[in-house]
Structures are given as C-alpha cells and as structure tokens.
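In full, the data.
>
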Amino acid sequence: MKQKFEVAIIGGGIIGCSIAYYLAKEKMNVALFEGNQIGSKSTSAAAGMLGAHSECDEDFDVFFPFARSSQYAYSQLKEELHHLSGLDIGYRKGGILKLAYNEKDINELRSTLSQHTVKWLDKEAVWEMEPDVSSEVAGAAYIEEDVNVVPTAVCEAFAKSAQILGASLFEFYPVLDIQKQDNSYLIQTATSQVEAKHVVVASGVWSTTFFKQLGLDHQLTPVKGECLSVIDEKATLKKTIFHDHCYIVPRNNGRLVIGATMIENDWNERVSLSGIDSIIAKAKTMLPTVADMKMDSFWAGLRPQTFDQKPFIGHHPEEEGILFATGHYRNGILLAPATGQMITDLILKRQIKSEWVEAFKIDRHQPLLVSR
C-alpha cells in the first residue's frame, strides 16, 4: 500500500465512491477505505429513487435545487460511467405517481404540484396510465422527471471508474483513528498507517464515531428501513408509485422493490417479520395485485439522520483538512453525484453556491433541547 495520499476517504458506500470518482477525475491521488465490502451497507438497502420532487415536501429554495442538480447529473453519468467501467447503472425512466386517496393527501401535494414539472392526474388518468393501481385513489401527482437507478450498480460503477482513473480502493480496511500531524493527517487502519493531506468522513450513520474522535458533539440517528422485492411476471407496473413515504419501484429485471419501514434508533440490521408484514399491507393498498406475486428477497439498512434531516457536507469547523459527507437520510442515492462534486470543489477551493455551503455546513444552528 502507498503510504501517502492527497485525499483519504473513509466509507465505501455510494457517497464515498462518488467522492472518489469526482476527485480521481481531477487527477487527485485518492485512497478510499471501507471496513466491509464496498456498497454493502445502506447503499445495498436503498430502492434507488431519484426523487428530487417526491422526497422534497418543503425547502424548495435550497435543498430542492441541490437535489435537482444531482438528479440531472445522473443523465450524464449513466453514459460516462458505462464508458469507463462497462457497467449499467439500471437508469430507468417512467417517473413517479405520488398517490392521493383523499382531500388531506391532495392538500399535502400542493407544494409539489406548484412545480412546473409536476402535473395533477385525476383517478381516470391514473388508471389509464397504471390500470392495476388501487381503485380507492382520488388522483396523483405525476412527476415524470423523477426516475430510478440500481444503487449497488451505481456504487460499483463509481468505484470501478475511480480505480480506472487512478484511485486506490481498500475493502475490509476499517479506519480506527485519525490524528493530525503537522499539515497532514495520519489514518490508522487495523493493519497499517497512511498519511493524507485531506480526510473525508463518509461513513453514513457510523460517522458519529469520527465526529467524537475529532472533537465534535454531533450525533447521527439510525432510521432502520426494511424492504422486500417481488417478481412481477407480467411486468404490469411501469412507473414508481408512492404514498406516505412508502413506494413500489419497478426494476428493469421484472422485480418490484417495495419499502420501507422507518424505525428510529434501531441499530439492528436484520429484517423483522412485523416490518415486512407492515410494508406488504401498505403495498396492497397501492397495488392490490402484489398479493399474488411471488416473493424474491428482503433486506434492511440504516439511514443516517441528522437533527434537521439534511446532510452534513463541508469542512470541520476548526480543521480545514477534515471534511464530512454524511447524514443523507433518505436521499443518499439521489444526492451522491452532487455531494461528490461539492466535496471535490471544496478541496480544490472552487466557487460553490453560498446557500449550499450554509445549508449543509457542519456547525449550522441546532435547536436547543429544552428539558421538562
């Protein structure tokens, strides 16, 4: 192993691999360290919706433009990554139907419908588009530009492309400690020590360990998500359907991904029977025909949630050479390209939209907890 790097990235999920890719494109000497197999944690549990509209119910001034920039990046990346790595990221068009069953649902969609790229469909138009959707729907917001990808395929394509461009990737290399040494940092792994000018922490919910180690009182809360996939033999569903943070996502291979539970402060990555039962019940209210489909597989992952559900992307408040890219909550797949580009721009001291720097900075205002 080389002993010196310009940038060391801790975490080999889709965020870390995106950062490695964008830095390698700039010919930076990059090393990525992952304690397990690359892409095997939260990335492997995600459904892969690029839901800039469907996941953004508010903050259309800052978060939404950031999410849209990342969503747009995928349309170029699907060709760029395929050219370099030979891998297909499973990019699928068709859009999302955000279902409404009653007046309350319709009212909650008003901010989404205010976007010029979203249109309202009455129930007849919904059934014309997707005949098997529940007969109970009142209509839906149709978001044609919200597409989906296969998260593990994207992560693998980022990783392989980064390697082709010169990045060094180390699987099963957990980082144990980070220490400052003059103008660089020493990164201690289980078997060796390396030196880097910059360190990027991109370890998802496990980043809390490094916040504490680096003198910051930040916490990331795990929000467990359980999912399953079924075999849609007739390939009946063409578009993703979504209601109340639950979704059914069609894949190019004839599978439907159904999810997901949201269980806070649960570090157990194993699937529960009650969790799977709850999402099956919810799926049947959206697409009754799933009841007759054959089960394919099921899994769980831990979403990293910050205090305001927005990611931490930026420099350590007191250490210019330490950066964080973590806490992406439900939007890690969607935000991976924009995060990779933003971290790269921060390291290279390029201009970045000031509102993005402020919104995602590590020391942004946190509400005080009031004891009772």
About this structure: The radius of gyration is 21 Å. The mean pLDDT is 94. The first helix runs from residue 14 to 25.
